[in-house]
Design brief:
Blueprint lengths: L3 H13 L4 H14 L21 E8 L2 E8 L2 H14 L4 H6 L4 H4 L8 H24 L1
Antiparallel strand pairs: 1-2
Helix pairs in contact: 1-3, 2-3, 3-6
């Protein structure tokens, strides 16, 4: 399985294919549409990420030494953003997730093209993913 850095590089290369931000937004929306999402029964408050403008549900499970994430959102762009994060971090060891610098977000210019509330939501998504990884790391 690819490392976090390798997955980040894949995302960077994909975003370099687009010249303007409207195309990049459309790509993010397409990623969101392709996200498998989560079962309706898991759309509970306990899985909601606090501090996001849209509703974002994030689940994490620990399997064979790796953290597996699944997520969903009720907003298309937000769903695409969480799809990117799931793609990069899911299937990785907890320690690697906790240590990940997530530099690809700046490299693709995502944070600077989000509204303040969406940017804050992005940071909260990353924080929650790292908190899950930290919890799994401490169980071992």
């Amino acid at each position: 399985m690819a490392t976090i850095k390798e997955k980040e590089q894949e995302v960077i290369e994909e975003f370099e294919l687009f010249d303007d931000w409207m195309d990049k937004y459309n790509y993010i929306i397409d990623l969101g549409k392709a996200l498998p999402g989560i079962d309706e029964s898991n759309r509970e408050d306990k899985y909601l990420i606090k501090g996001c403008q849209a509703r974002v549900w994030l689940l994490a499970e620990y399997k064979d030494g790796k953290v597996m994430y699944s997520a969903d959102s009720d907003a298309l762009i937000t769903r695409g953003i969480i799809a990117l994060l799931v793609r990069v971090l899911s299937g990785q060891a907890p320690a690697d997730i906790v240590e990940a610098d997530m530099s690809f977000i700046d490299r693709i210019g995502l944070k600077e093209h989000l509204s303040a509330t969406r940017s804050n939501g992005l940071l909260n998504m990353i924080k929650q993913m790292k908190l899950y990884a930290l919890a799994f790391q401490q169980k071992n």
